[in-house]
Amino acid sequence: MEKKVLRAGLVGSGFAAKFHFEALQRVFSTRVEITGAYSPSSDNLVKFTEPRNLRAFENVDQLIENSDVVHVCTPPVTHEPIVVAALQQNKHVIVEKPFTGYFGDGSTSFNGDTFSKEEGLHHAMESVRRMLDAEKASEGKIMYAENWVYAPAIQKERELLQKTGAQIIWMNGEESHSGSHSLTYGQWKFSGGGSMIGKGCHPLSAAIYLKHAEGRARNGRAIRPKSISARTHAITRMPTFKDEGYLRTTYKDTEDFAMLHVVFEDGTIANLIASELVLGGVHNWLEVNTTNHRTICNINPNTSMQAYTPAQKHFEEVYVVEKTETKQGWSSISPDEGWFAGYQHEMDAFYRSAAFGELIESDSSLASDVIATIYAGYLSAERKGAEVAITIL
């Protein structure tokens, strides 16, 4: 039986667009034809498209018109208009995290440290609402590209929950490393926040997803987040911070450390950390404590492969793992980083859904809950950790 052919269009030409392109090479459930890419930076677009032999589109509307599935791999400040435009043309849209947010009032004086976080919460949820409304009116669907959801360890935990009937009673998790790839990261007007949204969206999405999955398995209804208490800190911007050159310090008006305490509808909890202050590579993990089992999901690093070299020169041409500062000594090499992180799994699932109508694990409902939780978290942090109710759409 011949596989259905779907046309993919990539909006963006940076880090996310590159790993989307690589993940598309491992979609096996359908035939994917990458029609091309668009980026407002013509130089970056040429650098992205030429070596991959892709068409460089002149504008985003032209790319959407020539695609069945649109990949939004751009800074989050641009997500809403691209997602809505794709849905209005009845196209499926894969949107990178963070889903959306609040990016200021457009004034040159806007400062992420000083604006009203209650106002930010309101505007972020209005953005979410507009995107959900566009999806309801469209033949296309929103596919929330949260790779943690599709990481094999998280999907195995979902299977455990479904087959054991367990109740998750508490979770611990973290995403941290020494700083983002993005040049715009660290400015609220581009990123919609700092570590809480840029890093925290990952373990938070996984935690909320597992409570969604647990509720559906046990009661036929997702268990959703109810309230949050959070704190944020800008450690590298303190005058007392000792900069030794290993951590990125270019944050202008965003936090580089966040702690989230989330309470779900059933009274169970999740404690999550997100930061730019960890050396030694990416630190991505989620621990799930239930009524009949306990699971530790190590997304990155993991011990599937470990290697030692007495001098870094021997590994100069070897990719070891994301964000590591040195290759000398022992390294936790990831033999297939995209597989462990869930990139190819999510992409294959999205294209199965686009081709055959299968339900997806990482949908707009999850994306909405994550943004609602994060921006309620920013309001809580503004109030020095006071509990804030989460708006559920």
UniProtKB/TrEMBL annotation:
The record's section on Gene3D superfamilies has: Dihydrodipicolinate Reductase, domain 2, NAD(P)-binding Rossmann-like Domain
Look up keyword Lipid biosynthesis and say if it applies: no
List the SUPFAM superfamilies hit by this protein, alphabetically: Glyceraldehyde-3-phosphate dehydrogenase-like, C-terminal domain, NAD(P)-binding Rossmann-fold domains
InterPro entries registered for this protein in UniProt: Gfo/Idh/MocA-like_OxRdtase_N, NAD(P)-bd_dom_sf
Q: Which domain of life is it from?
A: Bacteria
Q: Which UniProt keywords apply?
A: Oxidoreductase
* GO MF assignments: nucleotide binding; oxidoreductase activity
Gfo/Idh/MocA-like oxidoreductase N-terminal domain sequence ranges? 7-100
PANTHER family in the record, alphabetically? BINDING ROSSMANN FOLD OXIDOREDUCTASE, PUTATIVE (AFU_ORTHOLOGUE AFUA_2G10240)-RELATED, NAD(P)-BINDING ROSSMANN-FOLD SUPERFAMILY PROTEIN-RELATED
Q: Tell me its family.
A: Belongs to the Gfo/Idh/MocA family.
The molecule here is called Dehydrogenase
Name the source organism. Segetibacter aerophilus
- Where is the organism placed in the taxonomic lineage, from the top? Bacteria, Pseudomonadati, Bacteroidota, Chitinophagia, Chitinophagales
